[in-house]
Amino acid sequence: MQPKPRANGTAVAEFILLGLVETPGLWPAVFVLFLFAYLVTVGGNLSILAAILVEPKLHTPMYFFLGNLSVLDMGCITVTVPSMLGRLLSHKRTVPYAACLTQLFFFHLLVGVDCFLLTAMAYDRFLAICRPLTYSTRMSQTVQRILVAVSWACAFSNALTHTVAISTLNFCGPNVINHFYCDLPQLFQLSCSSTQLNELLLFGVGFIMAGTPLALVVTSYIHVAAAVLGIRSVEGRKKAFSTCGSHLTVVAIFYGSGIFNYMRLGSAKLSVKDKAVGIFNTVANPMLNPIIYSLRNPDVQGALRRVIKGRWSLE
């Protein structure tokens, strides 16, 4: 995928990513901090995966989706952070046009699957709490695989649509991106041609691809809350809410940061806040998810202890 030349200017062949800080003296500290965050994220999510694989109690639909979510979290941070670390080491801040669009595609692909998987997890909780008698048939292994496959297909369509749309824009002037990875808002700011259709596409597709899953999540948990409040036992209510609390926390963080990032396209100037939200989307979310899901879950904690100690369960 190559940039289009213009009659009145030279096509941009590469972009310059300014990164998080422009002061060279701070680059070593940023490198160490983000390398540590990357290793913690990958290690944490691999631990969750290992716990799910070795603990028979975790061979359930909820943890099947959680395992897929851990893979996505590792993918999201791998798409952005290693390339940033490489630029810090080489002191080279340029990114080829094709590499920038490739990063954009894979980032939106993985985030899109993340969005749909969170919806599948909400549906799983709805069936488990509100339809317990038919749960095993409605959430069979076939249904689980179909939900994951549909998530990937929808996210692929979304990512490809935005990547192709951005490739039709002309970039012939400024090529400096005040960020540490390539994304739609930053590229819109640099385009020589009108981005109105691209922004309408982002809002329109975003409403369908993110708004619909969010509505399904909210609807699922309204039914879950009504069912839980109908449980007479205090212990039963506590157990039901504890299985949903972690997922709701992740959903709130995911959609909160995403809405802030993509609903501010009308802003004439991208600020430090955008970098902070970018860190939250690409680093903080994937790093926090293993902590959130294991913090109040004794089964996951027990499996993690066995993984760390090297005692594999054979039961």
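Next protein, fold it too.
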Amino acid sequence: MKNNYPPNFKYEDFGPLFTAKLFNASHWTDIFQASGAKYIVLTSKHHEGFTLWGSKYSWNWNAVDEGPKRDLVKELEVAIRNRTDLRFGLYHSLFEWFHPLFLEDKSRSFQQQQFPVSKTLPELYELVNKYQPEILWSDGDGHAPDNYWNSTGFLAWLYNKSPVRDTVVTNDRWGYGTICKHGGYYTCSDRYNPGHLLPHKWENCMTIDKFSWGYRRDAGINDYLTIEELVKQLVETVSCGGNLLMNIGPTHDGTISVIFEERLRQMGTWLKVNGEAIYETHPWRSQSDDVTPNVWYTSKRKQKLVYAIFLEWPTSGRLFLSQPIATLGVTKIKLLGHGQPLNWTSLKPNGLLVELPHLTLHQMPCKWGWALELTNVI
């Protein structure tokens, strides 16, 4: 701060610097659509308390009164719903770093509820009634228990009486101790990727920038996950029953930097070929292959399909899969994006050896990872 800002610069002085003058909700939406995403979650308010809509409970500290002088939540909501079939979600922080009422409640060990009654809860009702998000991503319990936040009361309204009661999905961050225990789906921790099957639906919320959720001017190329690393995250997550929520940090003037845009569009390119092995799939009996590394499985039970997603193309041109049990004359195998049936050999005591097609680099259906569709295996 001393090196970059004037003396006595306060946090609220950042308000006018956040202009969003280049923010174009339609452009953002086109990038999200191109990424292959099925839902987006906008940070409507983070721990500093600045709301991206003109909340009447955040007087003079919101995007309509300060900085952009625009309702950014509304602009993005309208663009998402008019231009795409993506689900529109909103992140909201329960607590605020600097709010005097929260700090006073905290000093009294949360035995009084001035802050949630006058700020958090009215704001949440306002947010849901005004924008009708289909995902409500709560965060920031401030080490206060759920009864301080009256989370069960709010959630009862959300699921029974709110305008999104039939479609809304929520996470697990509704008070100290609720994470990974109570929620529509679990997030457990930031960048959560357990590598094994969980009994409850979960989400891996992670960042493309390895070190930050926001935009960093000083980030170097090696600070960003490569598309190969992102595909690996996606495949591991989905095979274990999770969803992937990839975070990008826009700039203060409302743009998505080209490195983030490139990663999102690359993911969309990969999903155009391999989305069949990702969307609407279920975890299989085995999540990964225990002999061949970097092979992960998903399934579609009703269609009797299993997908083997492999992240390294074997130099031998043959891929050994130890988990599937195939039947001669019944089992069929094809490479997504290629389509022709592939030859395979059943091995004893189990597993099979798949003959991959001989393809030049330009004939490859995609880069960064491939998927086999296996019909009628057990």
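About the second fold: The chain has nine helices and 13 strands.
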